[in-house]
């Protein structure tokens, strides 16, 4: 029986030397098995259709094994990173980045990059003035109540007196006033976004100090995107304002990496003239030369060109850029939004076709990059469930997590080095933290990912039975399984442990039996489900049945696992996301960094 088990789990045919009796015993078992590999290099993973033999139940046990000898990919320690949109200058939230609660939430996701960029990047001007009372960005003085202005100034003065990391405890009335102002400004920002017409923004020296303080206090590395739409008459980049910002940052010894512009493929719609790939490449060469002239940034990292969805014209722009500046950037970047936020429905987040749209984009970007600079790192910057600012009770709900977790798994398995989530906090509904500074479902999902997932990606092998599709239909994989070495930073698990994360888009539960090297190991379950009566629309989540919430402004809750006995079948509830740490596997791929 052990020999039969070995052949069934491996998917290997019985050798010719097998006795006839053994072949007869094995025949029924082999008829039930359809083995397919979910290699981490595969983008579109489809199950092989198999005839369902008589008497076999629809709910089939799935056998899962992991290749523990060597990783198939190694991604950055900062793989899951964050973005802040410059709109926080407009709506006033930049003044509250020193909040203890926000810093605590951001620290939970460290180490990571913090990218300061977005639609308003190319309308941002730096003004080297420190007086907060006279040089506030955003609306005019009549917009802000006088006592609100005074509160901000007093808060700034109090922060200035602190040494090291500057943390503020803002009074409730001050936060309430800010929410009222932000709600009014939200309508202005949305109007700009839908009309694709943006007003200029001023970033003062004090605002830059606050931004850097937030990143530094939170353990995040700041990436600042400079305005690329300041152009000379010959359409070359005018770097005078950028140079002023660079000199100020260098005088403060700020450790910053840099970018230039945001979605250059859209410049024609913004200013009536385009910047082609070749010219953009020259602009990046110019920026690299500027950085080398400033001692603090002579070795600073430079990323770009942050193009949009890789359609034909965008690919042409990227090719022109890579020919000129491919060697000047430390990583090639692009961005992706799955759905138009104005028309999205909750069922959209359950469509496997939607989850798979990213695979084709990855292949297109990799093809261009590997043509001009083989081996160059690729980042996905500015990724979100929906565009147009998202939709309330949808892109900020539990349902959006299916897209987010699958994005993380797919990008890691395809070798994308970093993914930057839009956004940590902003005026829309794609954020991880709302304007009451409460973490949303995707924050908790990201926190679990950071705590449990290491940079080494492992190949998985699955064996199971799939139902025969009806004529004209294709079976799509609604059970997504990814595997990594467990994070080395998690001291609850010894090196050599493995973490699985699983997305079940089926409306029925699925059973998984761990096989091979994972067989008969103790497993810790982290099952994330919606909390409350709103179901998939919920903005609250529970972990193993316990609702998740901050303990206080300075403390995140303990993420407690549910231990499962060795050899127990994993039961994955319908429409859920879960993590499973397989302890003490002693995986060769995971013993060392």
TrEMBL record:
<dbReference type="GO" id="GO:0031012">
    <property type="term" value="C:extracellular matrix"/>
</dbReference>
<dbReference type="GO" id="GO:0016798">
    <property type="term" value="F:hydrolase activity, acting on glycosyl bonds"/>
</dbReference>
<comment type="similarity">
    <text>Belongs to the glycosyl hydrolase 79 family.</text>
</comment>
<dbReference type="GO" id="GO:0005615">
    <property type="term" value="C:extracellular space"/>
</dbReference>
<dbReference type="InterPro" id="IPR017853">
    <property type="entry name" value="GH"/>
</dbReference>
<dbReference type="Pfam" id="PF03662">
    <property type="entry name" value="Glyco_hydro_79n"/>
</dbReference>
<dbReference type="GO" id="GO:0030198">
    <property type="term" value="P:extracellular matrix organization"/>
</dbReference>
<protein>
    <submittedName>
        <fullName>HPSE2 protein</fullName>
    </submittedName>
</protein>
<dbReference type="InterPro" id="IPR005199">
    <property type="entry name" value="Glyco_hydro_79"/>
</dbReference>
<dbReference type="GO" id="GO:0016020">
    <property type="term" value="C:membrane"/>
</dbReference>
């Amino acid at each position: 029986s052990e020999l039969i088990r070995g052949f069934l789990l491996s998917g290997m045919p019985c050798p010719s030397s097998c006795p006839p009796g053994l072949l007869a015993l094995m025949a029924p078992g082999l008829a039930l098995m359809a083995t397919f590999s979910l290699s981490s290099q595969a983008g579109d993973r489809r199950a092989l259709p198999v005839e369902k033999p008589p008497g076999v139940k629809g709910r089939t046990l799935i056998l899962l094994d992991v290749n523990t000898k060597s990783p198939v990919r190694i991604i950055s320690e900062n793989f899951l990173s964050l973005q802040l949109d410059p709109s926080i200058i407009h709506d006033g939230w930049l003044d509250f980045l020193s909040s203890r609660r926000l810093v605590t939430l951001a620290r939970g996701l460290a180490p990571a990059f913090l990218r300061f960029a977005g639609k308003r990047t190319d309308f941002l001007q730096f003004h080297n003035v420190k007086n907060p009372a006279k040089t506030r960005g955003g609306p005019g003085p009549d917009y802000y109540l006088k006592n609100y202005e005074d509160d901000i100034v007093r808060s700034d003065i109090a922060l200035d007196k602190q040494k090291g990391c500057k943390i503020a405890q803002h009074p409730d009335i001050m936060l309430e006033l800010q929410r009222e102002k932000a709600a009014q400004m939200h309508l202005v920002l949305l109007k700009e976004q839908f009309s694709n017409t943006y007003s200029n923004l001023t970033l003062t020296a004090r605002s830059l100090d606050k931004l850097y303080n937030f990143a530094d206090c939170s353990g995040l590395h700041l990436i600042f995107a400079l305005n690329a739409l300041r152009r000379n008459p010959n359409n070359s980049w005018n770097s005078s304002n950028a140079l002023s910002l660079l000199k100020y940052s260098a005088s403060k010894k700020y450790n910053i990496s840099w970018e230039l512009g945001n979605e250059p493929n859209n410049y024609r719609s913004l200013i009536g003239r385009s910047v082609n790939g070749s010219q953009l490449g020259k602009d990046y060469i110019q920026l690299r030369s500027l950085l080398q002239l400033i001692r603090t940034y002579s070795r600073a990292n430079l990323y770009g060109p942050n193009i949009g969805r890789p359609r034909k014209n965008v690919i042409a722009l990227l090719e022109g850029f890579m020919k000129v500046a491919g060697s000047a950037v430390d990583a090639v970047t692009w961005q992706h939004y799955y759905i138009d936020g104005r028309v999205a429905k909750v069922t959209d987040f359950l469509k496997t076709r939607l989850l798979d749209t990213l695979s084709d984009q990855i292949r297109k970007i990799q093809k261009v990059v590997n043509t001009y600079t083989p081996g160059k790192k690729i980042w996905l910057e500015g990724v979100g469930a929906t565009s147009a600012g998202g939709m309330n009770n949808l892109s900020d709900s539990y349902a959006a997590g299916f897209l987010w977790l699958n994005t993380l798994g797919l990008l890691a398995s395809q070798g994308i080095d970093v993914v930057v989530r839009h956004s940590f906090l902003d005026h829309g509904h794609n954020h991880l933290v709302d304007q009451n500074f409460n973490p949303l479902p995707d924050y908790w999902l990201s926190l679990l990912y950071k705590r449990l997932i290491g940079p080494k990606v492992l190949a998985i092998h699955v064996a199971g039975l799939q139902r025969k599709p009806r004529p004209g239909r294709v079976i799509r994989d609604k059970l997504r399984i990814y595997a990594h070495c467990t994070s080395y930073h998690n001291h609850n698990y010894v090196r050599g442990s493995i973490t699985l994360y699983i997305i079940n888009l089926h409306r029925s539960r699925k059973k998984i039996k761990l096989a091979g090297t994972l067989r008969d190991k103790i497993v810790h379950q982290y099952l994330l489900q919606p909390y409350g009566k709103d179901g998939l629309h919920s903005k609250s989540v529970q972990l193993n049945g316990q609702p998740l919430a901050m303990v206080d402004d300075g403390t995140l809750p303990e993420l407690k696992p549910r231990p499962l006995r060795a050899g127990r079948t994993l039961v994955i509830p319908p429409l859920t996301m879960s993590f499973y740490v397989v302890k003490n596997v002693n995986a060769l791929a995971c013993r060392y960094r």
